[in-house]
């Protein structure tokens, strides 16, 4: 890790299970990687399992919520006090958590792209107006470009 990267534990329990957030610098942009770590629980629980690729900041909250929702939906409610995260991870593996995070991140990215698309001018004249080009200057353009 370089100085622009770091790991921060977001949630942990007495059973040793953690949902971690690792910050990653990619070409000057901040991305975040989620990990599930059940190393403090029963033998056979994966340690530091990545939950998909790194996420953009606007995708991170939805990815975290999806991982936690997946855990709540998959945990064994018959276990006394309900099944712990580390035990659920050991029982079902990381794939359901990865799928949930990826679906949430994809939806968040699509929503962010839709917002950006609504803001982007669709014609050169609109782009020029948004940039502050006077209408008088735009009248000199051929009809195809206005």
Automatic annotation (TrEMBL):
Q: Which InterPro entries match?
A: NO2/SO3_Rdtase_4Fe4S_dom, NO2/SO3_Rdtase_4Fe4S_sf
Read off the SUPFAM superfamilies from this record: Nitrite and sulphite reductase 4Fe-4S domain-like (SSF56014)
Q: Which Gene3D superfamilies does the record match to this protein?
A: Sulfite Reductase Hemoprotein, domain 1
Q: Which Pfam families match?
A: NIR_SIR
Looking at the record, the residues that make up the Nitrite/sulphite reductase 4Fe-4S domain are 38-101
Question: What keyword terms does UniProt attach to this protein?
Answer: 4Fe-4S, Iron, Iron-sulfur, Metal-binding
Species of origin:
Cupriavidus malaysiensis
Would you tell me the protein name for this molecule?
Nitrite/sulphite reductase 4Fe-4S domain-containing protein
* Domain of life, per lineage: Bacteria
């Amino acid at each position: 890790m370089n100085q622009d990267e770091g790991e921060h534990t977001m949630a942990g329990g007495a059973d040793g299970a953690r949902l971690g957030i690792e910050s990653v610098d990619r070409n000057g942009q901040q991305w975040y990687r989620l990990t599930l770590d059940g190393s403090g629980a029963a033998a056979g629980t994966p340690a530091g399992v990545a939950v998909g690729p790194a996420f953009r900041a606007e995708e991170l909250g939805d990815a975290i919520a999806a991982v936690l929702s997946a855990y709540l939906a998959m945990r064994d409610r018959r276990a006394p006090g309900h099944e712990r995260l580390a035990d659920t991870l050991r029982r079902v593996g990381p794939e359901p958590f990865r799928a949930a995070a990826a679906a949430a991140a994809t939806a968040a990215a699509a929503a962010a792209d839709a917002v950006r698309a609504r803001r982007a001018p669709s014609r050169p004249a609109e782009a020029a107006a948004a940039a502050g080009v006077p209408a008088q200057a735009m009248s000199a353009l051929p009809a195809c470009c206005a």
